[in-house]
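Cross-check.
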Amino acid sequence: MRGRIANLSLSGCLIHLGNEDCFRKGEAVEMIFCVRQLPVRVQGSVRQAHPDQAIGIEFTMLSERGKRQLRELIVELDEILRDQIETMAPTR
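Predicted model, tokenized:
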């Protein structure tokens, strides 16, 4: 199943799902993020299940290598977001 990450940290994420499948609070999940084309496998637990097909996941198992790669992904995404905001900001 694929989804769009709305919020990401080292402890978890919020994902908007693109279909009608739903998850229950407490359900175990396994996720794969691709960081520089390398897969990072994360195990987690559903902590929030919203009616708009969004789920909050708490990461329950993440290797040290996975933490390092996830940190890199967060930094990259932060830089992309900052660049987008700067591009949209009016100049004075």
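The CA atoms of residues 3 and 17 lie 4 Å apart. The helical segments are 64-88. Passed to J.P. for a second look.
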